[in-house]
C-alpha cells in the first residue's frame, strides 16, 4: 500500500468528488481514478459508492480513512523528526485522563513552549485503553495512566499528586449536609461515574458487601458533561476531586469518600522507541522540576 495513494484516497474522501480532488492534487482525473481502482483491487473491497455528482465512502472506506489518517500522521511525524534531529521543534503528543494531578506535565510543556516557539502540543483526553493503543502504535509519545494496572512494557514516572475520589451532588441534596460520604449513604441512590471506573468495578472494594446495592444508572467520559447531569438532580457523580466547578454559584458540592479512595498518576513512554530531541527535553525538564519540588518540600 503506497503512502502516496493513501494521501490521494484521503483527499478524495474529504472532497467527495474526483474532479475537485484531482485539481487539488494536481493529478489528471483518469490517473487518479486508476490509482483508486488499483487500491480497491489490492484491498479486495470497494471504498466508495459512486453517484452522478459525488462519491461516498463505504463502511470499509470509513475504516480505511481512519487508519490512513493515522498512518499518514505517523509517517509525517517520523519524517519530520528524522529531518530535525539537530533542532528542538515538533509536537509533544500526550494522552491523559482528567486530573489536576497532571499539572507538573503541563508546567514542563509550558516551559519548553516558551523557550522554543516552534514547539506545539497535542493533548488527547481519553481512557487508559485508547491511550495505551496509541502509545503502542507510535501516535502518542507519552501517556498518563490513572490507577493501578500492569505497566511492565513501558518506562514509568509516578507523578507526586494522587487523585482522590469524591461525590458530586446538588447543594440541596440531603447528603450534602454530611462531611463525608460512606458506601451505606449511597445505597439505592442513582449514581454515575467514569466509564473506565465502572468497567473495572472500581468501587467494589470500597463499598465491600454493599456493591450490589449501588445503583449505577450511567457513565461519562468527560467530568464536565457528568456534572451537567448532576445539576438536573438525576444522579450523584463519583469522580476525582477538583475536576468540576463546585463554587457556590455552581449549585453543586463535593464531598470526599470514606474510606478514602485515591489513585496515582503515572507518566509512561515506550521502552522500544528512542525519544526524539523534543521529547527527551520534555522528559528531562519534567524530571528536573519534580526533583526541585521534592527538595523544596523536604
TrEMBL record:
Pfam families: HTH_1, LysR_substrate. The keyword Lyase does not apply. Keywords: DNA-binding, Transcription, Transcription regulation. Residues 1-58 form the HTH lysR-type domain. The keyword Transcription regulation applies. GO terms for cellular component: cytosol. CDD domains: PBP2_LTTR_substrate. Gene3D superfamilies: 3.40.190.290, Winged helix-like DNA-binding domain superfamily/Winged helix DNA-binding domain. GO terms for molecular function: DNA binding; DNA-binding transcription factor activity. InterPro entries: HTH-type_LysR_regulators, LysR_HTH_N, LysR_subst-bd, WH-like_DNA-bd_sf, WH_DNA-bd_sf. Belongs to the LysR transcriptional regulatory family. This is LysR family transcriptional regulator.
